[in-house]
Design goal:
Elements lengths: L2 H19 L4 E4 L9 H16 L4 E4 L6 H10 L5 E3 L5 H7 L8 E4 L10 E6 L1 H15 L4 E8 L2 H17 L4 E8 L8 H13 L4 E5 L3 H11 L3 E6 L10 E7 L1 H11 L7 E5 L6 E3 L11 H16 L7 H4 L8
Parallel strand pairs: 1-2, 1-3, 3-4, 4-5, 5-11, 6-7, 6-8, 8-9, 9-10
Antiparallel strand pairs: 10-12
């Protein structure tokens, strides 16, 4: 190595050290875009809340295709971002390769809990089945036909977890109800296909469904729009989507990805804690949305029963089956 190479190498090390000393957090947004009004946007809102409260800055990247996953993580780590929040289970494999190569960089990944003991990785999982059970109860109670439906995004165990929890809640409130469930596709494009989401919704309506729950990322926008066009109720997901069609969105199953991102950013590199974290009903990681856009269509009697069920789930008196625990659902066939 000549003198110039040594100098450049030393300069690079100094630059990275300086970046680490004044590290900004990073956010890697999954396919579908940060303004999907659902999962990604919830994460973005959490980052923006941190900015508003602290005046801090963060690094942000939106994935455009599958091939970018690993290289995006490496580039963000190399520029000194710390901690880095990665959105979505599809990034798990790449992160398991990247994290060991950057032991001084802390990573948090959303919707993952199976990566084992990685000392610089925080794995954040949600009990989506619990929140979905509650909105399923609401769907059954609001339905006039006795038939309700579900539109999922990509057909993966996580989305089946939503659907299974929903169906359990529906049948708990009305054992005679019928639940129709469809997935949008088997590739990542299923997260951003509102046209297909609308088509599936109209098909479900033709089969008698008068309440539809969407757990499909950007595809869900098409589901909610089709439901409003056909004058049936819909249920949003992840972010509070009640405002999209006031008086026609029964509720939204809140998945507080915003809180997960906010908490990691707030802890920073110094306060970062690795390990598995679960966000559920007990810590308000999931829940239902009630606001001025839907309170007129949610009667007190419905709320009372839903809140009572939530209390039972938290206390352990009621167990909602988690599809991902054994890849099966006792009340719904996929």
């Amino acid at each position: 190595m000549n003198l110039k190479q040594k100098f450049l190498g030393a300069a690079a090390i100094l630059a990275l050290t300086a970046g680490a000393a004044a590290a900004e957090p990073g956010l890697i947004i999954d396919l579908g875009g940060k303004f999907d009004k659902s999962f990604n946007e919830s994460a973005f809102n959490g980052a923006q809340r941190w900015v508003a409260e602290t005046g801090g800055e963060y690094v942000e990247t939106e994935l455009a295709n599958e091939a970018q996953r690993e290289q995006t993580m490496r580039r963000m780590a190399e520029r000194g971002a710390n901690p880095i929040v990665v959105l979505g289970f599809a990034n798990a494999s790449a992160l398991s390769e990247v994290a060991p190569d950057y032991p001084d960089t802390n990573f948090a990944i959303i919707d993952v809990d199976w990566l084992g003991d990685l000392p610089n990785v925080r794995q954040i999982a949600f009990s989506e089945h619990e929140g979905s059970y509650l909105v399923g109860m609401m769907a059954a109670k609001a339905s006039e036909t006795g038939t309700v439906s579900f539109v999922g995004g990509m057909d993966v165990p996580l989305i089946r977890k939503f659907a299974c929890g929903y169906a359990q809640g529906v049948l708990a409130a009305n054992p005679e109800a019928t639940v129709i469930a469809n997935m949008t596709g088997t590739t990542p494009t299923a997260w951003n296909d509102p046209v297909r989401g609308a088509e599936l919704t109209r098909s479900q309506i033709s089969q008698g469904a008068d309440v539809v729950y969407a757990a499909a990322g950007g595809t869900g926008i098409g589901v909610l729009q089709a439901a409003a066009d056909e004058d049936i109720l819909s249920i949003g997901v992840d972010s509070n989507q009640n405002f999209l069609h006031p008086g026609e969105v029964l509720t939204s199953m809140l998945k507080r990805v915003d809180n997960a991102v906010y908490d990691v950013f707030s802890a920073g590199a110094e306060g970062f804690e690795a390990g598995v974290v679960r966000m559920d009903l007990s810590n308000r990681g999931v829940g239902i949305a009630l606001d001025g856009f839907n309170e007129a269509i949610v009667p007190f009697s419905m709320l009372s029963e839903v809140y009572a069920a939530a209390d039972q789930i938290v206390s352990g008196g009621l167990t909602v089956h988690d599809y991902t625990s054994d890849d099966s659902c006792p009340v719904l066939t996929f």
